[in-house]
From TrEMBL:
Stated name of the protein: Riboflavin biosynthesis protein RibD
InterPro entries hit by this protein: APOBEC/CMP_deaminase_Zn-bd, CMP_dCMP_dom, Cytidine_deaminase-like, DHFR-like_dom_sf, Eubact_RibD, RibD_C, RibDG_C, Riboflavin_Biosynth_HTPR
Binding sites annotated in the UniProt record for NADP(+): 148, 164, 190, 194, 290-296
Lineage of source species: Bacteria, Pseudomonadati, Pseudomonadota, Alphaproteobacteria, Rhodobacterales
Protein species of origin: Parasedimentitalea huanghaiensis
UniProt pathway annotation: Cofactor biosynthesis; riboflavin biosynthesis; 5-amino-6-(D-ribitylamino)uracil from GTP: step 2/4; Cofactor biosynthesis; riboflavin biosynthesis; 5-amino-6-(D-ribitylamino)uracil from GTP: step 3/4
Amino acids binding substrate: 162, 178, 198, 201, 288
Amino acid sequence: MALALSLGRRGQGLCWPNPAVGCVVVLDGRIIGRGWTQAGGRPHAETMALLQAGELAQGATAYVTLEPCSHHGKTPPCAQALIDAGITRVVAAIEDSDPRVSGQGFEILRRAGIDVKTGVMAEQAAQDHAGFFLKTEQGRPLVTLKLASSFDGRIATATGQSKWITGPEARRATHAMRARHDAVMVGAGTARADDPSLTVRDLGIDQQPTRVVISRHLDLPLLSQLARSATEIPLWLCHGPGADTERLRAWEGLGARLIPCAVQGTQLDASDILQQLGRAGLTRVFCEGGGALAASLLANDLVDELVGFTAGLGIGAEGLPMIGALGLSRLEQAPKFQLVSTRQIGQDIEHRWTRALK
């Protein structure tokens, strides 16, 4: 199952809106087939593993990281494919929460006489499929918030200079994280100040993540890197109902997808933004700030994973804080996270956090 989970992670960032599943087929202690969900969501992991196993699948065991699908979509159900291939035992990590499946895949297998065992490495599988489950159950993607800052928590100097606070090793690690998410998201302030491309570079990646920019008024430069590459790499712009009509037309003409979102106070409603992204199929979003967007996500309890890179330099109180105003008066109101890991990357420290248990 550990191998199946590692195979499934190869599909992260590539196969949305489908889950990134892994499958291993074993006969007499020998691996005869491996597969993972392919780019675009098809073929499914079981199909790929069975194709590799061929006729040897007769009497074999299939290890799969998520309950095999039981419904007819663009392809036949994987549960039936396992039956037709002659698989006699299925070991699954976790049940699918999609109501179209949710136990029905296991039931189909059992009715066909296949021995089914569930719950193997379920905790690890739940982490790997967290984005898919969130989209299915809550309608929104998983959000990883990544922030790179100075030792004193600043992301730019008072003049706005921010390149580069962290070193090349940390930036390369960030690109690897981008590649494992369906989309990279930033606020309008970051898009204007940094003119980012938000792409994965120097890692041999063919399929780029979708770029998402949150801009209530669509006041973004039309000659930016994002604008110039909008026809080649998907660019989605989340905007408010009062965005200028001419700007809407201009960005649409450049190839951007426009996503109208509700407003909360003076900002776009973070919850509605994520609901809209979930409806569009995203399961995993990698947010890289800036401070106002980070604060909005944290204030609305929408951050599932927190990744920080801390550099060994001080910028001072006049610098730009990595998290905008939260309006807190008591410590117990502060968003809390649980430390998962720390490591040194080059001359910087990476620290990873997840939601604290409530």
